[in-house]
Design a protein that fits this description.
The chain is of the alpha+beta class and about 525 residues long. It is about 45% helix and about 10% strand. It starts with a strand and ends in a 27-residue tail after the last helix.
Length: about 525
């Protein structure tokens, strides 16, 4: 890996393209390196992982609405969408939109945490959609996904967005563009322009993850994927983009990140160096924000100890979670969000409340992607009482471990101190989740398949499950006609549809009653 110094440059300095971060990323994307077997295996795992969480979310309102929007945009060749017939082809940017929401809705797929945060599996929907639409084969898809993961990991490692309240999809737009560029074998110039456009249009604020969190949290990465497809299309037609996007005098770093004096180091693979970034990422066993994964596992371990000593959880006086800066300030009491303690809060908000999550995991001895978030579950008086006795504090050592570059030391958990009514104390700690590569039960292909079958049960018919898994097993050998099968179909009655209507439904009701603006032509 080669470290690149990135800072703001005045327009009068006329920063050469070859010295711009967007160009350097484009060079990596255009470098046709061989993908290693271990990376290929992990790409297959993450395709399965995305399909698993998409299956579990198919009937949820945000996913149904995104699918309805996409379904209004049929396109010859096109791309397939989770849940719809494999013969139903939609415009690739809209397929990326629908599948991106389905993958992200439950906050249940992979993660990478460093200077910033990310869910690099969000790269797969736009790259797959373009690969299906353009008639690429399995090898091209693998190369594209390897690049998408690599660039997202490298940007997340080198540039912190959250301290400036910029949402992490600002790293996703450029990485998805890079992956699409690799898959299509595009020249450096085209990828360079598309990367800059994607950064320009996917820079948004972190209010999407603050206060009363809405369904936009699931739509945001889908939006970045959709913008990536459109950026590539526009650049392929010879159009340019704001440049230099990161380093410009009025650009990203100068006005949205650390300012004209800020400096960043972004390490990227050198020419001919394999793209291995995906191997540093990790998936979730539980449907909740990643910093909660180890703490859910710790709650499962501590619950029996507390009951053995106290009799029941009502005897708990307080629970203090000593953890990293991120956990404390984003999903802990350091966020100062009263919504995180509100039994009537949205699912998206409860997903970002470690106080709620730890309380439910203690009581139930585990976590479920639906039952644990149910309104009646959050409203239980005993749960609310326990929940409101839980707080977080930042521990400098856990923050240091969170940012460590040493995989053996890097940690995303915390130390929990439970004080009972009689004054006695029970303590325990856990550094990484059980499913983490260094955890008690690391995820391999067997676990990914089990997650898929478990979440798809009752939704995707067993023969359809097997058809999908068989394709993933043959991923490097897939022909263009095979790629359309890397989603799945379900019985239409399961999807249920949505009564919500908008612009793309206008033609069904020419009066426009209770609908959005008109799209009157096909």
């Amino acid at each position: 890996m080669k470290s690149h110094h990135v800072r703001t440059h005045k327009s009068s300095e006329n920063l050469a393209r070859a010295d711009q971060l967007a160009w350097r990323i484009a060079e990596v994307a255009a470098d046709p390196v061989v993908v290693s077997p271990s990376v290929t295996e992990m790409i297959g795992n993450r395709i399965i992982d995305n399909a698993a969480v998409a299956a579990a979310s198919l009937a949820r309102r945000p996913v149904a609405n995104a699918r309805a929007q996409a379904n209004a945009h049929p396109y010859k060749q096109g791309a397939t969408v989770f849940g719809l017939s494999l013969h139903r082809r939609l415009s690739p940017e809209w397929a990326a939109w629908a599948n991106g929401v389905a993958v992200r809705e439950l906050d249940f797929h992979d993660t990478y945490l460093a200077a910033d945060y990310s869910h690099p599996g969000d790269n797969i929907p736009p790259i797959l959609a373009v690969a299906q639409h353009c008639g690429l084969d399995g090898t091209a898809l693998i190369r594209g996904i390897a690049t998408g993961y690599e660039i997202q990991v490298d940007l997340v490692t080198g540039i912190c967005l959250h301290e400036h309240k910029i949402d992490h999809i600002a790293h996703l737009g450029p990485s998805a563009v890079a992956g699409i560029g690799t898959a299509l074998g595009l020249p450096i110039e085209t990828i360079y322009q598309a990367i800059q456009q994607a950064l320009h249009v996917t820079t948004t604020t972190r209010q999407s993850r603050k206060g009363e969190i809405s369904s936009w949290k699931a739509y945001a990465p889908a939006f970045a994927g959709k913008m990536a497809v459109e950026a590539i299309d526009r650049a392929m037609r010879g159009e340019g983009a704001p440049s230099p996007a990161w380093e410009g005098e009025d650009g990203f770093i100068a006005w949205l990140l650390g300012g004209p004096q800020a400096e960043y180091q972004v390490s990227l693979p050198e020419k001919g160096e394999p793209k291995r970034g995906i191997l540093g990422t990790y998936t979730k066993e539980h449907s909740a924000e990643y910093q909660s994964q180890a703490l859910i596992d710790l709650a499962r371990r501590m619950g029996p100890k507390i009951r053995e000593k106290a009799g029941d959880l009502s005897k708990v006086r307080s629970i203090v979670i000593h953890t990293s800066h991120h956990t404390h300030y984003v999903i802990g009491t350091g966020a100062n969000d009263p919504q995180k303690m509100d039994p009537k809060a949205s699912r998206e908000t409860l997903d970002h409340s470690i106080m709620y999550i730890f309380a439910v995991a203690l009581e139930d001895g585990g976590w479920h992607h639906e039952r644990s978030f149910a309104p009646e579950r959050a409203a239980r008086p005993e749960t609310v009482a326990l929940w409101h006795r839980i707080s977080t504090v930042e521990d400098p050592d856990w923050t240091r471990r969170y940012h460590s570059r040493d995989p053996q030391e890097k940690a995303f958990g915390g130390r929990v101190v439970v004080t009972l009514e009689d004054g006695s104390v029970i303590e325990d700690e856990l550094a990484v989740a059980d499913a983490h590569p260094l955890g008690a039960r690391p995820f391999g292909r067997e676990q990914y398949i089990a997650k898929f079958r478990g979440l798809a049960e009752g939704i995707v018919a067993p023969p359809e499950q097997q058809r999908f898994l068989d394709l993933v097993e043959r991923l490097p050998k897939l022909k263009p006609d095979d790629l359309g099968g890397l989603t799945f179909t379900v019985d239409p009655s399961f999807l249920g549809g949505t009564k919500a209507t908008g612009i793309f439904d206008w033609h069904a009701d020419p009066t426009g009653a209770a609908r959005g603006l008109a799209v009157v032509s096909e």
